[in-house]
Amino acid sequence: MIHTLFHTLCNIAFLRFIWWILLGVLLMGFAVTDGFDFGVAALLPFVAHSEIERRTILNTIGPFWEGNQVWIILGAGTILAAWPLVYATAFSCFYWLIFMLLLTMGISRPVSFKYRSKLPNLFWRRFWDHVIFLGGVIPGLLFGILIGNVLCGIPFYLDPSLRVFYTGNVGDFFHPFALFCGLTSLSMLTMHGSLYLMMKTEGAIYQRSLTASRWMSIVFMLCFVLTCLWAAYALSGYQIIGFMDPKGVSNPLHKHVMVQIGAWRHHNVLFPANWLAPLITCVGAMSVCFLSYLKQNRLAFLCSGLAIMSTIASVGLNMFPFILPSSTHPASSLLVWDASSSTGTLLLMLIVAVFFLPIILLYTSWVYYVLRGKVTGETIAQNKQAY
Asked: Residue 229: which H helix or E strand, with range?
């Protein structure tokens, strides 16, 4: 039995598939945890009408936002180690989008949290409030734009020595489908953030967040359905021609890829179970709207998290085994099966993940447990050290 287990773990196809799943799990963890941070920041000007309300809202996410960003670091590290060619291609082709993410999510957003309350000056605090707002809206849009571009394909090609050459420009990223994916992403995270505020606040903030959750759940569901229909019936998708060996060498140039409208839908025809993911997303969004009327805040938040995870699963399952399709040279597209690291690297990473991922989950859960409960204006008014 041990020999069979060891043989399975040393199977390159198994390791590639497992790390594709783990990458999805890490992205889901980031979207569910840091997602409500972005949603709360995007809602700040709309649900807070006074200084004490703004401070209350900021203190609902103050203890968590830094820890939540661990997931995106783990995700980027996973791509670097498991699919180095994907990492090199994505971070080169998406350079300006990632740069904008770093400016908002990684630089201005942390600074705004720390600097906002350093001075009592009204102009000072309103300036940083606007920075916090942009730090929620811009990343929320950019994540969707990134996904939209991946679904459409990125204009790049690989030469015989596997060097990456990008053939597009910055304006190519902002085409209608990508922008609509950005709107879908922003509405999803805003829905999630409003439900988080419902769990953590009371009074006027709670009521405004309740209204926002109902509207955002409807907007998200409509945007998601339209995005799915657009991708299935009007977007050029990618499909492998012939047999692709999951145990083959990591050389993306050893395959043929066909591009045609409806190819992503063809993946669901081959694997009908894939339809479950978008169905769960729609059910989750509808449940949010229904449960918010019943004021079942925690259950609504769980349904929102489920909708987010199934949205990410929908993209991954529809594209599998593609990770980064190439729109200009489809044969250069990067797959789960032909762009990975070696067996030894993937196995070593898996051993490390088995030990450390549960630890991360445990301490994250402990932090949320210790800091459970609502944040009230009275508590904030008495605590001058709070945000």
From this structure: helix 204-233
**pLDDT tens per residue across span 173-212:** 899 999 999 999 999 999 999 999 999 888 889 999 999 9
| Strand residues in 74-187 grouped as ranges (E) | 156-158, 164-166
- Residue that the structure tokens 């070696």 belong to: 342
Contacts of 174 (CB under 8 A, 6+ apart): 145
Beta bridge partners of 14: none
In which region does residue 162 sit, left (phi positive, over 0), alpha (psi from -120 to 50) or beta (all else)?
Answer: left
Domain positions in the chain: 16-237+249-382
Tokens 């060891």 found at: 6
Q: Provide the 3-class DSSP secondary structure of residue 340.
A: coil
pLDDT for residue 264 is more than 80 = yes
Residue 103, token pair as written in the block: 């400016």
Largest distance between two CA atoms of the chain: 69
Tokens found for residue 324:
């980064």
What is the Cα 102 distance to its own chain's centre? 15
- For the chain, give the mean pLDDT: 87
| Cα 135 from Cα 132, distance rounded (Å) | 5
- For the residues 311-327, what does the mean pLDDT come to? 91
CA distance 307 to 205: 24
The dihedrals phi and psi of 270, each to the nearest 5 degrees, come to -70, -35
pLDDT in tens, 101-119: 989 888 888 888 888 888 8
- For CA atoms 326, 330, 333, 335, the dihedral sign is positive
Cα–chain-centroid distance for residue 249?
A: 29
Predicted TM-score (pTM) of this structure? 0.91
Q: Which burial class, exposed, middle or buried, applies to 180 when counting CB atoms under 10 A from its CB (0-12, 13-18, 19+)?
A: middle
State the amino acid at position 221 in one-letter form.
M
Question: 279 and 246 in contact (C-beta within 8 Å)?
Answer: no
What lies within 8 Å, CB to CB, of 102 at 6+ separation is none
Q: How far apart are CA 313 and CA 376, in angstroms?
A: 36
328 in Cβ contact with 60 (< 8 Å): no
